[in-house]
Design a protein that fits this description.
Elements: H1 7-21, E1 26-31, H2 38-51, E2 55-60, H3 71-78, H4 91-102, E3 107-112, H5 119-130, E4 137-143, H6 153-156, E5 164-168, H7 174-185, H8 191-201, H9 205-219, H10 233-245, H11 248-260, H12 266-272, H13 279-287, H14 299-308, H15 311-325, H16 332-343, H17 368-374, H18 410-425, H19 432-447, H20 452-459, H21 463-469, H22 471-483, H23 488-501, H24 509-521, H25 525-542, H26 545-562, H27 565-578, H28 581-584, H29 589-601, H30 605-612, H31 624-639, H32 643-660, H33 664-680, H34 684-694, H35 705-721, H36 727-738, H37 755-761, H38 765-775, H39 780-787, H40 791-805, H41 809-817
Length: 818
């Protein structure tokens, strides 16, 4: 920030200092919202006065020091190396002492955040301000007056005095933004971009400067046409700085808005924040550039506040929101969608994340009954709670030297892929090293599916040549293709060939695991298990503990899919014992998802809770291993009777898989989980719709007769197992058999009927036409125009339709007809 920010305010301070030097005592109140630049201007004035030989006394008040009697006089004289004498607690005596000390220069008394001073200090400053007439003293106080509350009492009696000047540091205008960009960052901004920048920050000087710094880091000194301000690392850090500068009650409101996601219901915000009034805090948060009329001004600010909350704090507030949403009539879909959005944040793919005081794993939202089941809910199971000093970096090889530097998070993975691309660009196209570097890119893309489409596009041209040249590339490329649903049979053949050609070695471990994952994905359980055991035996002989652990975890997944739950649990437990969580990194989701699924499937609830409480790396939820964990946790929630939270995890899986373009074969499992959750909540209509959507239709079944029979069979299977330990085996059976089988299914006990069509069948053609249009929201007059009949005829048809369907009014008609 430079003096160009709030230039008019700076000029007024300099003018007041000049008048004080002439013997006209001055009092200046720097007023403005939190983090609005008051402290910065105060520091500029102090530095200027010291450089020009004036006597400077400073005091900074803190919200934690309100009980410290006469804290301000102590600090003022402490800056001179003198103790406060009893007589100096009288302001008039102090003025005389200061004048004697000043000599021919002026005295500048600077007090920051005066509202936090103890009562005795506030009285002292008020007396001092009233005693400065005709003295070479400038008193500058940085204070904040709430927009809706007027001036605090300390200033009420001084506003009419001629020697008091109030400098209101309001929002920056677009012209001030342009000046700030040039003086502070060397950027030349156009008026349109400056206006957008001012609008997205409400003219907050720190936020404007942070966005300019991010813009400079992203684009350099060139301003591309049509770009919008995008918050990056500096902006998120500025948001956190602003958050921690707020009063505790304002910060509580900000966190409540962050968890709720909007400002639609101020009463709910107030209740979630502990019942304190929200209006004043919302006005303050709006003034400092964080909120607008709907919620947070930017997604980056919203995510920064959420990430900064401790896990227990976020779980507590989320629990309150659920307890308010359900009685208010929110649908299970709405509540589950909200849970999925607030629990696992979307990835932040900036160059580096901010460094707040506290970071929270996106994994650990704990519902009411599970919190009760776990006891405190904050000891041991909540990752990264507390301050940042206890946080670790999660990456492979924390306890030993890793084979290669592996990305620790999505943003690091993005940078690594780009760095590998630059390295490839400097090599001859036919170099063997290119195949190895491309394989490393694909490994990262398979771990972080959001990067996979761009990585596949890079290797598409040379993929066949690289496959023939390098078994390592062939192994990884096979997994990338089946994850994307492309060329699954050729990919399966490539995986088998790569496993035959690959020699066991530390540099080939990731390629081996990729090829084995391809076999697992395509339900090749027997060959996958045999290859896995072979490579694990070689790894044991070589003493490669990390490879043994990862192969054991994969073998546990194979065994689980094959139906031997007890053996799968034992294998996953052994894998988890071989390496510390830090060494697993994001791949910790492999053994943990198997253990959660397995213990839930066998009904071992106590063991399931133990694995549910396991510490998790936050970046895991940006990876495909996070998908497996979410699916497993959904089963755990469903078995625990927490249907909404199970639905939220399943919906999160489906949303991420659709976003990442993961193939439909895996998507079917999550869809069946969604259907089971709906059934557990007795919402059979949505369960049927979900099943019908998950089950592919056949081109040789134009009347969908076979599709309907399969839907009925799936419905019956899920109905008997939803919410029970047998759900997992039911879903696996359906995915391997019913979804792919072409012969006719056994006759189900339940018949799926379209109740909306059944309702319409009760009406005549004319009544049906009128009822459908009315249910869609058309007025009687609009229906009459649409059907070329009179309004009276419309009313008669509607009356008969209401009577036949046993409804009253359009709202009930809309519900009945769907």
């Amino acid at each position: 920030m430079s003096a160009a920010v709030h230039l008019s305010g700076y000029r007024q301070l300099v003018s007041a200092l000049t008048r004080a030097r002439d013997g006209a005592g001055q009092v200046v109140l720097l007023d403005g919202p939190t983090a609005g630049g008051k402290t910065y201007l105060l520091d500029l004035l102090v530095q200027l006065a010291r450089d020009e030989g004036d006597l400077v006394l400073t005091a900074v008040c803190s919200k934690f020091d309100r009980t410290d009697h006469l804290a301000v006089p102590r600090q003022l004289f402490g800056s001179l190396g003198q103790a406060v004498e009893p007589a100096l607690s009288d302001a008039g005596t102090l003025v005389g002492r200061l004048s004697a000390l000043a000599g021919t220069s002026a005295v500048v008394v600077a007090v920051d955040d005066l509202r936090h001073a103890d009562p005795a200090s506030q009285r002292f400053v008020k007396q001092l301000a009233a005693s400065l007439a005709g003295q070479p003293i400038l008193l500058v106080c940085a204070d904040r007056t709430r927009p809706a509350a007027g001036f605090p009492g300390i200033w009420a009696d001084l506003l009419d005095q001629a020697h008091l000047r109030r400098i209101d540091l309001g929002p920056l205008t677009s012209c001030e933004v342009v000046r700030t960009a040039w003086h502070g960052h060397g950027l030349t901004l156009g008026e349109a971009f400056a206006q957008r920048l001012a609008a997205v920050t409400n003219g907050s000087a720190p936020l404007v400067n942070a966005l300019l710094a991010d813009h400079l880091a992203r684009y350099g000194r060139r301003v591309p046409d049509g770009v919008d301000p995008v918050g990056g690392r500096a902006y998120r850090q500025a948001v956190l700085d602003c958050l921690h500068a707020l009063d505790p009650e304002d910060r509580d409101i900000a966190e409540a808005v962050a968890v709720i996601g909007s400002l639609g219901a101020v009463d709910m915000v107030s209740q979630v924040a502990g019942g304190q009034p929200a209006e004043g805090a919302i006005a303050e948060l709006t003034a400092c550039g964080l909120l607008d009329a709907t919620g947070f001004r930017t997604r980056a600010a919203h995510e920064a506040v959420l990430h900064n909350m401790s896990a227990s704090r976020r779980a507590s507030l989320s629990r309150l929101v659920v307890e308010l949403l359900v009685p208010a009539g929110a649908s299970p879909d709405d509540v589950a969608s909200w849970l999925a959005a607030v629990e696992n944040l979307d990835p932040i793919s900036e160059a580096a994340p901010p460094q707040p005081q506290r970071r929270v794993s996106a994994s650990r939202f704990v519902p009411v009954r599970v919190l009760q089941m776990l006891g405190d809910g904050s000891a041991g199971n909540l990752d990264f709670a507390g301050d940042g000093r206890s946080r670790r970096h999660w990456h492979v090889g924390a306890g030993e030297q890793p084979r290669t530097a592996e990305p620790r998070s999505l943003w690091h993975a993005t940078e690594t892929v780009a760095a590998l691309e630059q390295e490839i660009a400097g090599l001859p196209p036919g170099a063997f090293t290119v195949a190895d570097l491309r394989a490393r890119q694909l490994i990262i893309g398979c771990d972080y599916p959001s990067l996979l489409p761009s990585v596949l596009a890079r290797v598409k041209v040379d993929s066949r040549r690289l496959t023939e040249q390098s078994p390592r590339f062939a192994a990884v490329h096979s997994l990338s293709r089946v994850l994307g649903g492309h060329d699954t049979q050729p990919a399966l053949a490539d995986a088998h060939a790569a496993l035959t050609a690959l020699e066991r070695g530390r540099e080939n471990s990731r390629a081996v695991v990729s090829a084995l994952a391809t076999l697992l994905h395509e339900n090749q359980f027997a060959p996958a298990a045999a290859w896995c055991e072979r490579f694990a035996s070689i790894a044991r002989a070589e003493g490669d503990v990390a490879a043994v652990a990862e192969l054991l975890a994969l073998q546990a997944q194979i065994t689980m899919r094959g139906g031997d739950t007890a053996k799968a649990i034992a294998q996953a437990e052994h894998a988890l014992e071989l390496m510390a969580p830090e060494q697993w990194g994001i791949r910790l989701g492999m053994p943990l998802s198997t253990l959660l699924l397995g213990t839930t499937a066998v009904g071992d609830h106590e063991a399931g809770v133990r694995y549910f409480r396991h510490r998790l790396p936050e970046p895991m939820f940006d990876s495909r291993y996070g998908l497996h964990y979410l699916y497993a946790r959904g089963h755990f929630y469903l078995a625990a009777g927490e249907h909404l939270f199970a639905l939220a995890d399943y919906l999160r899986c489906g949303r991420l898989m659709t976003l990442w373009r993961v193939d439909s074969q895996e998507l079917a499992r999550w869809q069946l989980g969604v259907a089971a959750a709906y059934m557990a909540m007795n919402d059979y209509d949505k369960a049927v719709s979900t099943i019908a959507e998950a089950l592919p239709r056949r081109s040789d079944d134009p009347l969908d007769a076979e599709h309907a029979r399969k839907c009925e069979s799936i419905f019956e299977s899920l109905l008997t197992s939803a919410g029970t330990p047998g759900l997992l085996s039911t879903i696996e059976h359906l995915c391997r058999n019913v979804f792919t089988r072409t012969e006719t299914e056994p006759v189900a006990k339940y018949k799926i009927v379209d109740r909306y069509a059944d309702c319409l069948d009760r009406l005549t053609l004319a009544e049906r036409q009128v009822a459908v249009l009315a249910a869609k929201g058309s007025t009687n007059r609009a229906i009459a125009r649409e059907l070329s009949i009179t309004v009276s005829t419309v009313e008669q048809h509607l009356t008969r339709a209401y009577r036949k369907l046993q409804v009253v009014g359009r709202n009930e008609l809309r519900v009945r007809l769907g």
